[in-house]
Amino acid sequence: MIKNQFSKQAPDEGALPRYDLGPGGRTPRLALVANLHGNELNGMFVLARLAAFLKSIESGEQDGLRLRERVVIIPTMHDANLPIAAIPRRERSGVMERRHHNPGRTMLETVATLTRTAYYRVDLHSTAPEIEEMPQVRLYAPSDDERASACLFGLPAVIERPAIDDAASGLVRAWRAHGGENFVIHAGQAGNLQTGHCETLFRALAAFLDRTGIVSGLRPVDDDEDLRYFGLQQVMTVAAEQSGLFASGLEVGCWVRTGEVLGQIYDSLTGGIQAEVVAPVAGLLASLRRQPLLQPGDLVARLLTPAAAVQRRSARLGERHGRWASRRA
Ligand SMILES: [Zn+2]
User: What distance in angstroms lies between residue 178's CA and the mean position of ligand 1's atoms?
Assistant: First the structure.
């Protein structure tokens, strides 16, 4: 059913599933893409659902809702009929963040071409199968407009990196050359479908569509969002000092105190606890290792420290922009 809604592509655009929704004949306001790396199922699932939702608005099935701007959605950058095993290993391994961002060049160029005219561009990304990430927005050397808009998703953290570094996806690099506003949203664990994270992501995208005026008539729940903005110096990584089996009962997105146990390292032969990994600082648990086999130096967790974080409690677009502007002034 949904498959029939995919746009017909020119031959050079390959077999990419693509939705082109909203008023035609104008430049897209928003482009949403997911699953550049073939195993980012949370993003793919959410975009497929969002496309179906926007399609139902377009066809008048959602009372009072209107799609006012053109939106392009590419839920997966791999042929949906292609089994994961057929994707070159280089593209799906994702053992390390750096190695993970290495999709085929042609794919990048195709997706960049399909999305370059959109003003807002969002890549939904999951870093690696080993690490679970709380839904969060990543910005790379952002403009003030990008900083302000990043808050419109209402996700619990926006993390700003000072440069387009190795952690940035090739897509972000390609987009940057075309201006506009570019965002990467990390959520969950590659290779997994995590419905809790998917719900959060869907709500975040709906909030963005509402607050940017792309969809009118939405009445998102006006929770008192607890939104924080973090610079790279506030990201504390916790690395393993020894090998073993790591396990944690914590959920990403929770706050931990200094010295709180993040998880245990078990001896793989005896099953006994060799060590406990504790939080070196208090902070928001943004990333947590889910692949238990641990080697010294492996990433165990990322904590976002509130030290200099600017806490922003606000629910309305005007307030957000207003407050941001006054603080930047
Ligand atoms: Zn990705």
Answer: 20
Q: How far is the CA of 189 from the centre of ligand 1 (A)?
A: 11
> What is the 37 CA–ligand 1 centroid distance (Å)?
5
Q: How far is the CA of 273 from the centre of ligand 1 (A)?
A: 35
CA of 36 to the centre of ligand 1 (A): 5
Question: What would the CATH number be for the domain defined by 2-226?
Answer: 3.40.630.10
Which residues neighbour 94 within 8 Å (Cβ) at sequence distance 6 or greater?
A: 37, 39, 100, 127, 128, 129, 190
CA of 219 to the centre of ligand 1 (A): 30
Q: Provide the 3-class DSSP secondary structure of residue 159.
A: strand
Q: pTM above the 0.70 mark?
A: yes
pLDDT band at 103 (very low <50, low <70, confident <90, very high): low
**Which tens digit of pLDDT belongs to each residue from 66-77?**
999 999 999 997
CATH fold, domain 233-304, is OB fold (Dihydrolipoamide Acetyltransferase, E2P) (2.40.50)
Q: What whole-number distance in Å separates Cα of residue 185 and Cα of residue 181?
A: 13
Angle at 67 between CA 61 and CA 71, to 5 degrees: 120
Ligand 1: centre distance to CA 33 (Å): 10
> At what angle are helices 41-58 and 195-211 packed, to 10 degrees?
40
pLDDT band at 221 (very low <50, low <70, confident <90, very high): low
In the reported structure, the alpha carbon of residue 237 is separated from the centroid of ligand 1 by a whole-number distance in angstroms of: 21
Residue 82 has pLDDT above 80, yes or no: no
Domain parsing of the chain, residue ranges: 2-226, 233-304
